[in-house]
Amino acid sequence: MEFPAVIIVVSLAVMVRGDSHVTAVCHMEQNKQLSGSSSPKVTGKVTLVQQTIGGPTQITVDLKGLTTNSVHGFHIHNSGDIISRGCQSCGPHYRPDGTQHAAPRDQKRHIGDLGNVMSNSKGEIKTAFIDYLVSLHGNDSVIGRSIVIHALRDDLGGAR
Ligand SMILES: [Cu+2]
Ligand SMILES: [Zn+2]
């Protein structure tokens, strides 16, 4: 299920250290198509670090400006085009293998399905987690795609 986004991504810049250690930083900015005064002004960054090819990726989320104590869907979308039509030009959840929408812990899911993140009493999201499908290497790399935090909660593929 797709939701309207509050903010979207900017870009994924990449720095390479050594042969396989990759760090990518995504600077988040408000969705230009929702830039009315009623829309939260969310800023911050998401940092992705993958130490080895095929290894897990650490994802660190550091955002502010959200509504307080609220749950938001958090995904990697297919395209890095956040300019032309906002969320629409970001395309669907990144899914090179065409699987179903699901939760991060599910075996079959879109690579971009990172579930939900929750804001604290100050409207900040500060969290970090490991993901085993998101990669910064090879054909299925997420570099250059977009990270979207949505206004609403992700249903994680349906009731379960
Ligand atoms: Cu999304
Ligand atoms: Zn999905």
Task: Walk me through the structure.
The chain has one helix at residues 87-90, and strands at 5-8, 12-17, 21-30, 43-50, 57-64, 71-77, 113-118, 125-131, 146-150. With 160 residues, the chain is an all-beta fold. Strands 1, 2, 3, 4, 5, 6, 7, 8 and 9 form a 9-stranded antiparallel beta sheet that branches. It binds copper (II) ion and zinc ion. Copper (II) ion binds next to β6 and β9. This is Superoxide dismutase copper/zinc binding domain-containing protein.
Unreliable stretches covering 5 or more consecutive residues: 1-15
- How would you characterize the largest beta sheet? 9 strands, antiparallel
Overall pLDDT, averaged? 85
Strand % is 35-45%
Amino- and carboxy-terminal Cα gap: 15 Å
Question: What share of residues is helical?
Answer: under 10%
Radius of gyration: 15 Å
What is the overall number of helices? 1
Total count of strands: 9
CA-based shape:
globular
Based on secondary structure, the structural category is mainly beta
Secondary-structure element sequence?
A: EEEEEEHEEE
Organism: Exaiptasia diaphana
Pfam family, one: Sod_Cu
GO molecular function: copper ion binding
Keywords: Signal
Brief synopsis:
Helices cover 2% and strands 38% of the residues. Strands 1, 2, 3, 4, 5, 6, 7, 8 and 9 form a 9-stranded antiparallel β-sheet that branches.
Helix-strand blueprint:
Elements: E1 5-8, E2 12-17, E3 21-30, E4 43-50, E5 57-64, E6 71-77, H1 87-90, E7 113-118, E8 125-131, E9 146-150
Antiparallel strand pairs: 1-3, 1-9, 2-3, 3-4, 4-5, 5-8, 6-7, 6-9
The structure holds copper (II) ion and zinc ion.
